[in-house]
């Protein structure tokens, strides 16, 4: 006898709030990666510092499968509820401590080491959280409606990123640039401890899932979930198919649309940070309801082709989409309003000399505004600077777009969010349905977190490397080279999924 819709909404509300907070905690690191690279890594090589930050960001993804194994085993042994209570507290604590960690200037190499360890704890926690929440909701849902009900959990990842962007934007607006740079960037991390506490109070009153309680009362829980999940050849076949035929492609589509797009806007298009965050936030806000739309659609049409449609669209259109994005800030194709050019010079005295900062503002007929900030240093006579990098002139470019260009960029990001909702909306129900109750938490968590944590999580670092390498070799469209990684992975996944995923896979979930 299934629970009423009222009870289901309570289950989803409690599960979703905790999962949303965990995703928020996990994503503020990525959303603030450019700022964090200046705080926890040596400042003398900004590119190396940024790449190190991306690697630390990726480390949290790489360790997620280990969290899936550890907490998945606990979830199948002692229950769904208590396991994802532990993951919630672990995630919240690690995020709070990142916000409290002293900078590289204060404690040297201990700073990136501490942040790396805390990032690994975040990854372990998330590895256990998602499988627990998805399984918990699915096991409360009526048959034939799992796609719809579990899709609400799917919204939490994107909404968690949206909330992280909103909190960062509000913090920037309420503080001066100097205050945000000095200590304000810590605020989004520290705030999470309060949100975790609220979620804990809500979750502690939840009941265990009915399917797990029934399996436990009948003595049908697994004695060794790891061995029964991966030592059993029959079940291992489903684990591998779930990974290479669904989760792997879903992972790269998810991270391309939400993280690669953000990095591309800021580091390739040179879009103003706040404007890039706002554009992504708007696209996420309009796109998020489609998780539920495609989750419900998968109940009617089946999970397979809804997910594979998202992958195929991504494979075919990623390069044209990113080419269109790039051209929106490509001033070589724009007409400048020469009479409107502005230039401001500021001098800032330091112990070694005077820093000269010249800002040149260019206006274009389509409403685009480009700021070139040139910084140089005039060393005091008879005194040398210990930091050679201070002597080198540097240029920072910031682009602001307006009007139709702004709307067009929102649409281009929104299209990528739609691809995400196609692949991600149905996947929780798909994974839950192909594994039996007694090993479900363990079996579904591993392919999900390998697909997302490794194939998806490595995307920013791998794509940045591919684009940088293409630029060094003088390729004219170097800015598109990073897309070969998600396109290639999604293409392999589409082929495997199209050939091998079948409706009969759900029969495995009937086998105890």
Automatic annotation (TrEMBL):
GO cellular component terms, semicolon-separated: plasma membrane
Membrane topology: Multi-pass membrane protein
Annotated InterPro entries: MFS_dom (IPR020846), MFS_sugar_transport-like (IPR005828), MFS_trans_sf (IPR036259), Sugar_transporter_CS (IPR005829)
Subcellular location: Cell membrane
Molecular function terms, GO-annotated: transmembrane transporter activity
Transmembrane segments annotated in the record for this chain: 12-36, 48-71, 83-104, 110-128, 149-171, 183-202, 234-255, 275-293, 305-322, 406-434, 446-466, 478-501
Keyword line: Cell membrane, Membrane, Transmembrane, Transmembrane helix, Transport
Residue ranges constituting the Major facilitator superfamily (MFS) profile domain according to the UniProt record: 11-506
Domain of life: Bacteria
Protein name, entry field: Major facilitator transporter
Organism: Sphingobacterium deserti
């Amino acid at each position: 006898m299934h629970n009423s819709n009222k009870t289901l909404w309570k289950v989803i509300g409690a599960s979703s709030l905790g999962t949303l907070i965990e995703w928020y905690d996990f994503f503020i690191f990525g959303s603030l990666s450019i700022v964090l690279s200046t705080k926890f890594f040596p400042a003398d090589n900004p590119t190396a510092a940024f790449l190190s930050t991306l690697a630390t960001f990726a480390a949290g993804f790489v360790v997620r499968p280990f969290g899936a194994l550890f907490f998945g085993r606990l979830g199948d042994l002692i229950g769904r509820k208590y396991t994802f209570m532990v993951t919630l507290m672990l995630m919240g604590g690690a995020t709070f401590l990142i916000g409290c960690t002293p900078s590289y200037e204060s404690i040297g190499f201990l700073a990136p080491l501490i942040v790396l360890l805390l990032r690994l704890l975040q990854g372990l926690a998330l590895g256990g959280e998602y499988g627990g929440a998805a399984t918990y909701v699915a096991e409360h849902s009526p048959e034939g409606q799992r796609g719809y009900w579990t899709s609400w959990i799917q919204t939490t990842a994107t909404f968690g990123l949206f909330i992280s962007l909103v909190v960062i934007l509000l913090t920037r607006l309420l503080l001066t640039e100097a205050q945000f740079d000095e200590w304000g960037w810590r605020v989004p991390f520290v705030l999470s401890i309060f949100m975790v506490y609220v979620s804990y109070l809500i979750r502690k009153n939840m009941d265990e899932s009915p399917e797990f309680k029934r399996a436990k009362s009948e003595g049908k829980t697994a004695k060794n979930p790891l061995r029964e999940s991966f030592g059993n050849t029959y079940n291992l076949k489903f684990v591998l198919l779930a990974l290479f035929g669904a989760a792997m492609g879903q992972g790269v589509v998810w991270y391309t649309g939400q993280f690669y797009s953000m990095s591309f806007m800021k580091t390739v298009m040179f879009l103003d940070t706040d404007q890039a965050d706002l554009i992504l936030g708007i696209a996420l806000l309009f796109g998020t309801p489609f998780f539920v739309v495609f989750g419900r659609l998968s109940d009617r049409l089946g999970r397979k082709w809804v997910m594979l449609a998202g992958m195929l669209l991504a494979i075919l259109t990623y390069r044209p989409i990113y080419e269109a994005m790039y051209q929106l800030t490509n001033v070589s194709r724009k007409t400048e309003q020469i009479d409107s050019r502005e230039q401001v010079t500021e001098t800032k005295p330091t112990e070694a000399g005077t820093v000269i900062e010249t800002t040149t503002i260019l206006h274009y007929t389509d409403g685009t505004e480009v700021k070139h900030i040139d910084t140089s240093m005039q060393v005091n006579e008879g005194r040398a600077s210990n930091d050679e990098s201070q002597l080198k002139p540097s240029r920072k470019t910031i682009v602001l777009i307006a009007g139709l260009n702004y709307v067009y960029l929102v649409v281009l990001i929104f299209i990528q969010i739609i691809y995400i909702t196609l692949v991600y909306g149905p996947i929780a129900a798909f994974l839950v349905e192909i594994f039996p109750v007694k090993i479900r938490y363990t079996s579904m968590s591993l392919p999900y977190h390998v697909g997302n944590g490794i194939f998806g999580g490595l995307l920013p670092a791998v794509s940045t490397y591919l684009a940088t390498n293409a630029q060094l070799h003088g390729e004219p469209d170097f800015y598109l080279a990073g897309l070969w990684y998600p396109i290639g992975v999604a293409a392999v996944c589409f082929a495997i999924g199209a050939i091998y995923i079948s409706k009969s896979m759900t029969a495995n979930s009937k086998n105890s």
